[in-house]
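Customer escalation, tier 2.

The customer says the design service returned an amino acid string that "doesn't look like it belongs to this structure." They asked us to rerun it and document both sides in this ticket. The original structure tokens are below, unchanged.
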């Protein structure tokens, strides 16, 4: 289907207040949309379901499901015209928010120094007027700006509307082969990928790698750890380690081990989570949760021998799951976008620098809003 026809179909779905999701995987032009046929709020029971999941940060709350069987699947192509427009995002004075966030970071550092935990990710939200843009124009501007991210627009009338462009995979599985990543440490991209990383950033990223490897090693068949690389996500650079291997356990157990990783919560997980829930003065809801496709089946018919087409056709069925961490995202209510941003805090954190990091992260969504 043509991109504009897909948007028209999704607008209709939105006006009828029916759930849908539309997304594009990193470095692809293909768009996938699932349009639910009713407005039931389905939730995941044990991750054996098929469909598109939308999970909150707090795993005690329910994970929403758009079931594959209860929705229409539409595929389209988004060809970026390659007219990436750079907009300067001016940052107005946010003195109150700044002092409040710096106070929160200081509390986090104190808790680390007193031995409560090793790392905590602390976040805040910011509201921005989306001016006269429709949600679909906004989605297109996010698509245009972030070709290497997982870009999505998700809507459920009983939950809300979210848009994001995340650089972080939580878990990808193809049959029993898995891949995940430890993504942490941030600096602004200034035209050069060959940058030097401070000890604080290296340590905060290593904590994520160790957590994933320790947790998964107990339950997977095999695991291998890649090198630490610098990767670009919008205007930011991060440190990333790819972790791959073979699973033997069910998906639910693996997701329980991973989510929330110390890239969005902290270490040890429970202590950091308690701190986040108690001290951040707002509810994260779906920010730093995860989203993506669950157990989708892709069957391909192939020919063993091109010369004897009739007798040799065989089908291979792949089951794939592709889950991403919900970062660089916003929730839209009427003409207001709430942008969510956070950063990893360790004993070496400088509160002023951590504040500036969240200001830089907020620009990812603001750039698309102001385009
Ligand atoms: C928690 C966020 O980013 C995570 C992912 C990459 C780098 C991060 C950091 O440097 O703190 C965070 O761990 C966010 O963007 O809100």
């Amino acid at each position: 289907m043509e991109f504009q026809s897909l948007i028209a179909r999704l607008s209709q779905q939105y006006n009828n207040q029916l759930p849908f999701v539309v997304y594009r995987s990193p470095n692809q032009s293909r768009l996938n949309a699932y349009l639910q046929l009713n407005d039931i709020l389905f939730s995941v029971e044990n991750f054996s379901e098929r469909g598109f999941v939308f999970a909150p940060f707090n795993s005690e709350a329910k994970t929403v499901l758009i079931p594959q069987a209860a929705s229409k699947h539409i595929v389209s192509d988004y060809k970026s015209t390659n007219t990436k427009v750079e907009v300067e995002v001016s940052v107005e004075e946010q003195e109150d928010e700044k002092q409040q966030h710096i106070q929160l970071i200081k509390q986090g550092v104190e808790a680390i120094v007193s031995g409560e935990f090793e790392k905590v990710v602390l976040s805040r939200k910011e509201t921005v007027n989306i001016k006269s843009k429709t949600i679909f124009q906004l989605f297109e501007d996010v698509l245009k700006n972030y070709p290497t991210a997982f870009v999505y627009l998700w809507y459920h009338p009983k939950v809300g509307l979210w848009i994001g462009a995340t650089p972080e995979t939580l878990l990808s599985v193809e049959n029993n082969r898995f891949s995940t990543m430890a993504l942490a440490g941030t600096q602004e991209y200034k035209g050069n990928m060959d940058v030097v990383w401070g000890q604080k950033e290296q340590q905060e990223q290593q904590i994520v790698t160790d957590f994933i490897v320790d947790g998964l090693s107990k339950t997977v068949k095999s695991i291998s750890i890649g090198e630490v690389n610098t990767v670009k996500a919008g205007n930011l650079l991060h440190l990333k380690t790819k972790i791959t291997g073979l699973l033997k356990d069910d998906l639910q157990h693996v997701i329980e081990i991973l989510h929330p990783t110390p890239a969005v919560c902290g270490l040890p997980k429970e202590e950091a989570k308690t701190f986040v829930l108690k001290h951040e003065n707002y509810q994260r809801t779906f920010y730093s949760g995860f989203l993506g496709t669950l157990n989708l089946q892709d069957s391909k018919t192939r020919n063993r021998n091109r010369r004897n087409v009739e007798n040799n056709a065989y089908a291979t069925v792949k089951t794939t799951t592709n889950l991403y961490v919900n970062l660089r995202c916003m929730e839209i209510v009427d003409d207001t976008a709430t942008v969510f941003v956070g950063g990893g805090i360790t004993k070496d954190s400088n509160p002023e620098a951590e504040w500036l990091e969240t200001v830089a992260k907020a620009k990812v969504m603001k750039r698309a809003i102001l385009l």
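Tier 2 assessment: The sequence is consistent with the input. The mean pLDDT is 93. The pocket of ISC is lined by residues 121, 123, 168, 183-186, 238, 263-264, 327-328, 341-344, 361 (CB under 6 Å). Sent an explanation to the customer and offered a walkthrough call.
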